[in-house]
Amino acid sequence: MKHQLSQKFNEIYNKEAQHAFFSPGRVNLIGEHIDYNGGLVMPSAITFGTYLLISPNEDNVFRFKSLNFDESPTIPVRDSYQKDGDGWFNFPLGVIEHFTRDGHKITGLDMLFFGDIPIGAGLSSSASIEVVTSYALNELFNAGYSKLELVKIAKSVENNFMGLNCGIMDQFAVAFGEKDKAIVLNCDTLEYDIVPSNLGDYVLAIINTNKSRKLVESKYNERVEECQTALKDLNKELSIDYLCDIDAETFNKYKHLIANETVRKRAQHVVEENDRVKLAAATLAANDLAGFGKLMYASHDSLRDLYEVSGKELDAVVEYAKTNPQVAGARMTGAGFGGCAIALVHRDAFDTFSKELETFYTDKIGYAPSVYQSLIGDGVGTLAVASVA
What we know:
Blueprint: H1 5-13, E1 19-30, E2 40-56, E3 61-66, E4 74-76, H2 90-101, E5 109-115, H3 125-140, H4 147-161, H5 169-176, E6 181-186, E7 192-196, E8 202-208, H6 220-234, H7 248-254, H8 261-285, H9 289-305, H10 312-323, E9 327-333, E10 340-346, H11 350-365, E11 370-374, E12 381-383
Helix pairs in contact: 2-3, 2-4, 3-4, 3-5, 4-5, 6-8, 8-9, 10-11
């Protein structure tokens, strides 16, 4: 489809696209529900993502078209913009609102979006849309933002325009990703290290459970509130800004301060998961994929039992993976409540893995998953229009 986008743009708008951009999705290799708790995460950009073709118009309107969604609104250029229902176009509209509020004059545009990320699968399709839009507007209107400032704009859109209390990991990963490398990101300071991800004889399998979820409608915000409650309780005797400011040993010493057992479990996952990211970075650096795989399984078990954001679909994928000796490790990735799992699968066994998993999952769940093989790719950037012709 991406090689037909210029033609599609011409058919829709009866003119040529003048600019093209791409922003990837992301997987988080380990470190889940850590970003809003000030800790370490290990995401990487993938080779699926969002394409944006764009041309200015003189009609003083923004035309939003997508090959993935039915809604195609035309919105007049104004001094400010409000979220309009739950349509996909609110993500780029929120970016336009942020640029406008910052004093940049954004004039009429004809836009065509296309994403090959499975929607609602936990691969950051929304962050991909936000970042590709902010990057495009920055280029077209010479706004002068740095890439980090664009990441912060995209996060602000998610938090303040869309109403989701997410952290910064998704936007950061799709902006700063590098081919064949993972990012170890400190979500508090935004300092990061690039970790070579030499998977050797293994490949990254992305398994879409095909159980969709919308985070704003899920219990995501509830988990954020529970973590804030745990932090408040711990600060009766400690003085910390985030749960991830302490390690597991310190947590075990002070966990009695957290009165609610459920809230205590949430905090335990966060603190221990943060420690796992540190171990994971060391195992990857040492090319210890077996050790990394064990940490993946431990992460999933914690997300299932302590944080309770998994579900029978994600658990079924990991259950099968544990029976296959060609799999080094597996875990849910993303916020959970459906979406995707990832697995490290021996390259030569990938086709067999896909077929056997499909059978196992279908027997257990009642419908099939979708299994993809992805590479670790680059972050947001400009494309030649000819490359999507």
